[in-house]
Amino acid sequence: MSRRESPPPPSPPPPPQLLGVRKGDMECEDRPERAEPLSDTEREIIQDTWGHVYKNCEDVGVSVLIRFFVNFPSAKQYFSQFQDMEDPEEMERSSQLRHHARRVMNAINTVVENLHDPEKVSSVLALVGKAHAIKHKVEPMYFKILTGVILEVLSEDFPEFFPAEVQMVWSKLMGALYWHVTGAYTDVGWLQVSSSAV
Predict the structure, then answer these.
(1) Which residue from 82, 74, 91, 78 is spatially nearest to 145, judged by alpha carbons?
(2) Residue 101: count of CB within 10 angstroms of its CB
(3) Are 182 and 193 in contact, with CB atoms under 8 Å apart?
(4) Residue 55 vs residues 66, 90, 106: alpha-carbon distances, Å
(5) Using an 8 Å Cβ cutoff, are 111 and 121 in contact?
(6) H-helix or E-strand containing 65?
(7) Angle at CA 35, nearest 5°, toward 127 and 62?
(8) pLDDT averaged over consecutive 10-residue blocks of the chain (198 residues)?
(9) Distance CA 36, CA 96 (A)
């Protein structure tokens, strides 16, 4: 590259490879038969680290949604209340965004509190998936992207609690969340989990 050429603009980072959902498993027909189960030790790690995160659940949730919407602005199309917001500071002040951030964090909290009960986890995530598929018509690829954003924010905002080995355990959980949510999409007749560009 000559000195006069500027480097190409950076592309948005791809969602991380999630354990339990193999790379390329974007079509429902190719979904793994089941999510990779968590061990007792992994459940304890998730619950311990979540305790630190959940103390600041609204702020963390807002950080997640702001990063999600700034990096993937097409996701805002599903939110009439704040789809026209461009400024992260305006998003941060939005009561509607804060409300949705609490809902996201509370759903994750319900999953984390019930990791010992796979049926409850499956039920909660099926409700989330079906609502987003039927009522909100959200492309399921946004869940894969969102799980990656959640992992980024947690590891950056809580580095002391999210070393690499803990991040791997959380990646496994996020893979399971994505697997359950996309399973709900399949159940309601959503034929393909789109991998189209965001």
Answers:
(1) 74
(2) 23
(3) yes
(4) 19, 24, 12
(5) yes
(6) helix 57-71
(7) 55
(8) 43 37 40 82 97 96 97 94 92 95 96 95 94 92 96 97 97 95 92 50
(9) 34
